[in-house]
């Protein structure tokens, strides 16, 4: 029997999905938030083109169902193939259970998930193989479970789209993508906001009833499974339909061109909108956040950074001679401030960095802009506040930006990005190469240069040795160099070479990852001190983000505080700076220390300039925060504004420069001046990015 016959489960599930999509459109159309009237032509597009779009999207979305049905057969249980497949599954299970697989390399719960999945698959295949008389019954039970899952996903998606519309008045956008990252917060919000027991009970009952109907109608299909010839024929048709869907769906999306935003959103397919949000990684500021007239926003920005007109551009002038020293920027993976002894840690896991900080210009009160590596890379490269959505690093429009690398290239520097893993990860290679950086990553290392590697890349010690070689070669060119090195060892699975530190690598602990990174950096600096370029080099050490971002509030300050210091013996005097600083200020401050004059588009500032007004930016994908004047202002989607007073919490174990922990007390009355400042920073940054005015 063919997959596409009227007795096929695929036929019934397709009808069910299209029916759910149709009902959802009607519900959204009459929802109170949909405050609009629609012309006959708009209504025709909403339901006509909407239906066509739903159909082609489901062809793509049903790929897993097709694969499941494709592998339903009796022939694979015939001798000798059934026994061969069973032995292969047993061998795979033994390998995953006893061997050191890529799942073990990653660590966490992934090995257990892999073992459980393959174990269940092996047991079920064995039951179907060795009990042929019960095979039909067993298959029907497994088939019912599979169909229930597919139906449940369809029903749950329809419910989710309704609640998303109920809150935002649109189909899925990047907020929905963000919800997948911050699942604990979302689940908590759902539990508190909706009658979850009746709701989930209704979803379960509907899914069960639809599953019962489909399974009952599919009985003939299960008894008379398609032959190999029928499968090949159906697969060919599906492949053609799949390819055509990939072509036609974007074309249909372009027909969402009404001046009525609600008409466009109702016509759209939610799943495709989710895909676009994930791909484009942006959230339109003007649609979801509180705004002010652009002229007013830029006027406020001018008070902060001295820009001109509707830009962030201004000329940074130094009265002293430029000092074109080499610059090595080291961003340390997931390095929270409280890993260091200075901030109260008593585990002695950063002995070298504790020493180095005392010999450096130490920024004790500096905040990361976000909680992902790409946010940290964006901050030190583009010196830009974190805009709504994903980091610029992962966006489509991420090239030819005004960057630290661009400024240094203009001054004759060699510019490189060094990464111990594959720079393809997190779109780093695309971003840095698209902004004029040469890439040195794991692929650049020769086999004899690698002593240890895991799923994330070579150990930090290997990359440190490679960095020394790279810098020695650069010195021969007779031009200064800027090398940005991103470490990797302080990342799950936290494995590293044995015998280097007093924490066993097999423990796979965060403390071990931190201490090994500290050890690798000690070795790097010991080696660097022997090189001819060392005395003419400024080293900038900063975390990309903290190890954890969860807390009791939307933006817990202690989960954004990171260490940062500038080390240059005989050039920069060691001192502690407890001024409030943002991660985006670090490189402009270094440029100031080197007396650079340059045309700037950075939002980041030299904090030693008298015009600097202390503030810091912290954010998630949605919540955008400004720390200023002992208050935290947060702007969020649906034009929400919250404000917290920062009440200092004294810790007698910490020195005066590190009394930087606060309770965030909600304020009922919003400070209008700080609210406007927050909106000004984020609105203008979003505007300039959108209009490509932050390009070089």
Automatic annotation (TrEMBL):
Keywords: Cell membrane, Manganese, Membrane, Metal-binding, Transferase, Transmembrane, Transmembrane helix. Mn(2+) binds at residues 333, 373, 544-545. The active site is at residue 373. One of its GO terms (molecular function) is transferase activity. It is a multi-pass membrane protein. It comes from the Bacteria. GO terms for cellular component: plasma membrane. Gene3D superfamilies: 3.30.1120.80, Alkaline Phosphatase, subunit A. The chain crosses the membrane at residues 12-34, 46-69, 81-98, 110-130, 142-165, 196-215, 235-253. CDD domains: LTA_synthase. It is found in: Cell membrane. Substrate binds at residue 491. Its main location: membrane. Residues 325-595 form the Sulfatase N-terminal domain. This is Phosphoglycerol transferase MdoB-like AlkP superfamily enzyme. It comes from Flavobacterium croceum DSM 17960.
